[in-house]
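Structural prep section.
Before we set up the soaks we want a predicted structure of the protein with flavin mononucleotide in place, mainly to decide which crystallisation condition to try first. Input record follows.
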Amino acid sequence: MTGGIAAYKSVELLRRLKTMGAEVRVVMTASAREFVGPLTFEALSGHPVQTEMFSKEAASPIPHIALAHWPDLVVIAPATANTIGRIASGLADDLLSAVVMASTAPVLLAPAMETDMYRNPIVTENLSRLRGLGYRTVGPGTGFLASGGEGIGRMSEPEEIADAVLDTLTSTEEFAGRRFVVTAGRTEEDIDPVRFLTNRSTGKMGYAVAECARRRGAEVTLVSGPTELSAPPGVEVVKVRSVAQMREAVVVAFPETDVLVMAAAVLDFRARQVATSKIKKTGAGLTLELAPTGDFLVELGKIKGEQILVGFAMETENGVANAQKKLEAKNLDLIVLNDLTVEGAGFAVDTNVVTLIDRDGAAQDLPKMSKREVADRILDRVKEKLKGK
Ligand SMILES: Cc1cc2nc3c(=O)[nH]c(=O)nc-3n(C[C@H](O)[C@H](O)[C@H](O)COP(=O)(O)O)c2cc1C
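Run finished without errors. Recording the tokens verbatim:
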């Protein structure tokens, strides 16, 4: 921990890490101790908080080396502009920076500072240098800042940092050299300049697939419809709105793609005529004629070579039979069936209840699990299918 206002949030981070089953030791810079006392951290971690490089009371004669060798991961939360700069410059003049310098464990930084400090080109360059050297970062987020202002610079919430910890610890290279295109979220089709058709998809499932594929070593392009979600780290995001735009982005990327996961909720219909000016309210009803948008997954299924195509089906009745038909008709390798009638499945929730259906017709029901876990189970199947390709 370094000396920033966000240090108080690290209590919650520590609690979360402990709940996840982690063993944690806390190192504070001298400045961090100005913001929060060590007692809570000692009680929650079960170990004394360490700050001094040259302490007579330290358990080990060379504390920074003992600490550097101990962890699987070093998390610096909050990470001040000062400490980021010191690490980027290779300094090791206090316990925290010496531990980082001497450790071979991955390092995750959660930057936290005022917007102007964060935007300072020196800080930007230091962070970019560290990322280039393999340091990972989470955040910062945007919102209210301690100064009373609003902007980018807030330390990520403890939950997000804990997720990034898990991601860092579980990242692999199993999809190294593989290119994934993942579509996510809803699409929108205009009716007139102010109104449009859409659906309830939030993009959570597709974002989870993109994030997990990246964490497992793939090069990932995420073609995303409108969503509130922030881009997963290391993933290239192409933002689209209409079905035609999503089709264009996917078709362009397809020849270089090994795996296409179509998690987006692509609209089936669009207004046959888009009015060029706002349709007036007349007091009478309005009949809107809809035309099909065209299913570009069918097109891609026809031209696919070695590529693996994964589709999603959202059904409210005869789920498995309808999903199997869809898999055949679109020449997919795997289809993920969401049953909207089950609690914990579908839109806007963090969990999903799905059935994975293969080309050979085998259907595997998965229990209710987080969308990330579902993403990993889908990717486990994709991995099997990529074998030998
Ligand atoms: C009230 C107060 C709040 C501060 N908040 C931050 C902060 O959020 N981020 C930051 O980079 N520096 C912040 N600073 C400045 C750092 O504490 C200062 O740069 C210090 O030298 C950092 O030391 P360290 O990186 O060794 O912990 C703050 C200073 C004060 C007095």
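Observations: The longest helix spans residues 371-386.
Flagged for discussion at group meeting.
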